Amino acid sequence: MGQCGTQCGMGLTSCPNDAGVTACIDTTSDNSNCGSCGNACRPNTTCQASVCVANLGNVGPVNLSGNVLDDAGVAMTCTTASGASGRKTAIDDTNNLYVAMLCGTTTQTLYVVTSQNGGLSYGAPVSTALTGTEGAIIVGTGPTPTLYAATTITSGALTFSASTDRGKTWSAPQVLETPTNGGINYGLSMAMYQSTLYISAAVTSGSATLDVLRDGTGIGDAGLADVDDAGFSLSTANLVGFFISDIAVDPSNGNVWAIGEDDGTYRVAVSTNGGLSFGTAVSPPGGAFFTDWALAKGTIFGVGSTDLLYAIPTSSPTTDTTVPGLGVTGVADGERSIGVDNNGNVYVATSTNTGMTVARVLYALASADAGPPDGASSIDSVRSIPEIGSGPTITARPANAALLAYTVQGHVYATTLAY
């Protein structure tokens, strides 16, 4: 056209650099122009498929709470407890890290901190304005996913909020449920399936029931009534004599599992219609108290007050296999948490009176269909954290990496573990 210019080949984009010189750039992998010209990735992140993805390595511990101040400017104490209820760590598809903590004295508020560089640094704690005695977070899928938070108050309400900007701002708190006969008890849990969020809370009203609330367009949501104008659908499963610790969704088929124990005996029940109703609860062998659960690759993994890791196949939930060696000496109630990565590898965080440990068990060594004989020791790795902390909560969403948060003397710490 009579002018000198740059013509880029197929798949390349013409981008000027800081000196104004134009070059042909592959924006799918260029760290300085990731997805678009001038979009530079943060330190410790790389451009993958036009999205900046954080690199997860061995980092920490990092003090996340610092001085969280109340309205009067007084520093508040913060906690991740209880480790066995209400998971307070999350990792999204681009490896951004999220940690939640309850801060305050008479009234506790749920705060969330975010790291966009693999745990090298975290932003300031941001209040969700949710108050309660137990809290949990979970993150959706995609490059800019929604982050969800919920809290419960014993003998009180289940409240909810969401963030679409990686925890910088939060929607106004919504009351999803206020039981009229008995309060919400221990057992707050959250799970995701495609675009649908599940929140469960064990409600005590004469007999144990499980309330499941869904938000989204996934399986089981159509045709169910919303509650409290919150966009959620509610169903109640009467699982008598069944203390529900967690709700989990099988990513392969969308089946929803209610998991817990009855006086130390494990109990599981499945819903094939998105939590609208559950089948009869069954009991695999063994059991424990203060349990925590995760599900991956068709296997339910559980830990509790014993030294055993349990692997329960969803295809045969009345059977299981066990892996010993987690240790029980000095472990207080609720001081054990479990996470599982995309490959089915299991990570168990345990707090004792001498420090904390993270034990990893490879899927090939733990799964009921591929594991060793029942009761064989197959712990792949044990890492020690010298701090004497409480409320360990662990998540291991990507392959071969985990995020652990815990509390020491009113402060919340986080560390990332890579294998």
What would you note in describing this structure?
- The chain is an all-beta fold and 419 residues long.
- The protein has 2 domains: 1-40, no CATH class; 47-418, Neuraminidase (6 Propeller), CATH 2.120.10.10.
- The protein is built from 1 helix and 33 strands.
Task: Reconstruct the topology from this structure.
Elements: E1 13-16, E2 22-25, E3 45-48, E4 51-54, E5 59-63, E6 78-79, E7 89-91, E8 97-104, E9 108-115, E10 126-131, E11 134-139, E12 147-152, E13 158-163, E14 174-177, E15 189-193, E16 196-205, E17 207-215, E18 226-227, E19 232-237, E20 243-249, E21 256-262, E22 265-271, E23 292-296, E24 299-303, E25 309-313, E26 321-323, E27 336-340, E28 346-352, E29 355-361, H1 363-366, E30 381-385, E31 390-395, E32 401-408, E33 411-418
Antiparallel strand pairs: 1-2, 3-4, 5-33, 6-8, 7-8, 8-9, 9-10, 11-12, 12-13, 13-14, 15-16, 16-17, 17-19, 18-19, 20-21, 21-22, 23-24, 24-25, 25-26, 27-28, 28-29, 29-30, 31-32, 32-33
